[in-house]
Design a protein that fits this description.
heterodimer; A: 5-stranded mixed sheet; B: Rossmann fold; 5-stranded parallel sheet; 5 helices
């Protein structure tokens, strides 16, 4: 954070660090509040970086796994919506491969695969888990299912979880700094969750093809 | 020795390879397959000495793979690496000819204990 509360500008000559080629579609920008370049993830996206930048996203019932090589500072984050079981047992590798990272098992595989491809070592990986709030009162507890999935996934593989901020009823804003491993979580107030509610609801609708469409404005204050 | 790792999780295949190294089983020729169908085809052409397979996989599960191989009369060491290991699963695995069943999460010590009698 910059001194005196004034928004900072990137240092003279500083340019957005190049992303790894497979992440050219991810939205990246200078974040003056955090004095850092940032990559912003939408549901179903994931991002891996070898540069000093932060990765941020907003989570409702979705879960993000933040992973880094604790020695090299290479890391990444995903943002998944559903564990694998919602995919009728097909594990997400089927026809809709482009959208497959909405599923936890695919999102975890891709994240780990790309972090290792960027030079991280499997034995140095550390995970922090965030999200999985019960924010959609009317629906089944997707957040809980996501939490159970990601814990079991990492436990099965003997991978180290060094921090968690999971569950409860809050949406969360997450900032992850792969270089240092720092994760900052801001729990959002319910009156500000209209957008997240609408995004998650419509995302579930897209995945399940059943729910009616809602807008952010129409649901402001309605979500828990 | 030719070792084949069968698991639909690429991360898990890497972890199995790493654990093999950590358990001291080095210098073996290791191949991978991501489900039973691909493993079956690869096994028929490359005839591995040892297969380490997950239980739950899409298209063809590990136990279906083993039962197919047993029916075809193929002979090699077959072991499972799986999360759930109920008595029923263990019985079915043993009946089909599995040599051992390693539960996840595992350690290099688990691997040593299970594999030492079979790898030289």
């Amino acid at each position: 954070m910059s001194a005196g509360g004034t928004a900072s500008l990137p240092a003279v000559g500083a340019v957005l660090p190049a992303s790894l080629p497979q992440f050219a579609h991810i939205r990246r920008y200078w974040d003056p509040l955090h004095d850092s370049f940032a990559a912003k993830l939408l549901p179903g996206e994931y991002y891996v970086t070898i540069a000093a930048e932060l990765i941020c996203t907003v989570l409702g019932s979705c879960v993000s796994a933040c992973v880094r090589d604790a020695e090299l500072g290479i890391g990444g984050m995903n943002h998944f919506m559903l564990p694998l079981d919602s995919c009728r047992g097909e594990r997400g590798w089927g026809a809709a491969t482009s959208a497959a990272t909405r599923y936890g098992n695919v999102a975890m595989e891709r994240l780990i695969g790309d972090v290792l491809a960027a030079g991280a070592r499997l034995e140095h990986l550390e995970f922090k888990l965030v999200g999985g709030g019960k924010v959609l009162a009317a629906l089944t507890d997707v957040g809980h299912a996501n939490i159970q999935f990601v814990r079991a996934y990492l436990k099965e593989r003997g991978l180290a979880v060094v921090g968690e901020d999971l569950g409860d009823v809050y949406p969360r804003k997450v900032h992850f700094y792969p270089a240092s491993g720092r994760v900052r979580v801001k729990k959002l107030l319910s009156t500000r969750t209209g957008t997240i509610y609408a995004r998650e609801h419509n995302y579930l609708r897209e995945v399940n093809g059943a729910l009616p469409e809602v807008s952010a404005a129409g649901n402001r204050g309605v979500a828990p | 020795m030719k070792i084949m790792i069968v698991d639909d999780s690429a991360a898990m295949r890497m972890i199995v390879k790493k654990t093999l190294r950590q358990a001291g089983f080095e210098g073996h020729e290791i191949s991978e397959a991501e489900d039973g169908v691909k493993a079956l085809a690869a096994i028929e052409s490359s005839s591995p000495d040892l297969v380490l397979s997950d239980w739950n996989m899409p298209r063809m599960t590990g136990i279906e793979l083993l039962e197919r191989l047993a029916a075809a009369g193929l002979r090699f060491i077959f072991g499972f690496i799986t999360t759930e290991a109920t008595l029923e699963q263990r019985t079915r695995a043993t009946t089909a000819g599995a040599s051992f069943l390693i539960s996840k999460p595992f350690t290099p010590e688990t691997f040593k204990a299970a594999l030492a009698p079979h790898i030289h």
